[in-house]
Amino acid sequence: KSANPQWREQFDFHYFSDRKDMLDIEVWRKDNKKHEELLGTCQVDITALPMKQTNCLELPLEKHPGSLLMLIAVAPCTGVSISDLCVCPLGDPSERQQISQRYCIKNSLRDIKDIGFLQVKVLKAMDLMAADFSGKSDPFCVLELGNDMLQTHTVYKNLNPEWNKVFTFPIKDIHDVLEVTVFDEDGDKPPDFLGKVAIPLLSV
After folding, report:
1. Mind listing the pLDDT tens digit for each residue in 152-175?
2. Comparing 32 with 46, which gets the higher pLDDT?
3. Picking from 11-15, 64-68, 121-125, 176-180, which range would have the lowest pLDDT averaged per residue?
4. How far is 112 from 144, CA to CA, in rounded Å?
5. In the chain, how many domains are there?
6. Do 140 and 196 share a domain, yes or no?
7. CA distances (Å), 166 to each of 94, 171, 191, in order?
8. Would 107 be classed as within a structural domain?
């Protein structure tokens, strides 16, 4: 019940500089659980923003009254990566040694925000549920840690998909939970849920 809401939320997105992505923003009004109304949209051209600084933007909503006030910072991303299993980022012994040195006890207070990182190898799934009429599924896997989200490619018409991907996340809170969810790609429709597992970082 506010025409001037304050959210004060922060979201991190992994933006790769070789892409020409626009940040799409939608504002919705919710009356109850069933009724929602779009109050306006706006876009931000990420490539036009200066790097390594916080940009304060007041964005008017298209075709609707009102505006959004946002702080957007484009900064080099450390720790997040997606790679194939054959070029695993921690496969190099010298790299492992550098990381061990970086997180040794004598360096533990050098950067309070640099808690560590999590590397996840997503190999395969087995005996998934058939979501299509053909008796098959088009599965892909989504990994979420805090507000970081990465996903595999889709393996079409397969109940035993192999992804063989390596995902690396920076850890921001040691109490976070890694959530791994498998979905069935369904064209233009929302994907179908095939299963999920949650792994607390403290259990690793």
Report:
1. 999 999 999 999 998 888 888 889
2. 46
3. 11-15
4. 23
5. 2
6. yes
7. 19, 16, 23
8. no
